Amino acid sequence: MTSLADLRDEYEFLDADDRYRLLIDLGRALEPMPEALKTDATLVRGCSAAVWVYPTRSDDGTLHFLADSNAAITKGIIALVLLTVQDRSPVEILTTDIEAALAPFDLRNQLSSNRTQGIPNMIALIRETAGRYAG
């Protein structure tokens, strides 16, 4: 996947329609999440679309997240969030200002509130997971 900085540079030059397409393409590039992991236990609450997040821990202690959604734009937002935390240590995740990293994408003004209302819940779940592993 592209770095968040590269995406940010590309994103700021696009019009609204192309930004939607970029998000959809990011979502398509997400690592596939097995259907068996899409359960009530991995469902993120408060999202207008169904969003599932499943953490795994690598041998080196980093966290890797599998995530999916039933909505194309939402999958793209998930991809942006994961670019800020994927394959990092729990402590790195806890000290990352995910909201600040996403701020240049201005998602709240680019997308409907339905599309963005679950982002804080997904971020909270990622931080909670990192906190469990950091402790």
Automatic annotation (TrEMBL):
SUPFAM superfamilies: SufE/NifU (SSF82649). Residues 13-128 form the Fe-S metabolism associated domain. InterPro entries: Fe-S_metab-assoc_dom. Belongs to the SufE family. PANTHER family: SUFE-LIKE PROTEIN 2, CHLOROPLASTIC, SULFUR ACCEPTOR PROTEIN CSDE. This is SufE family protein.
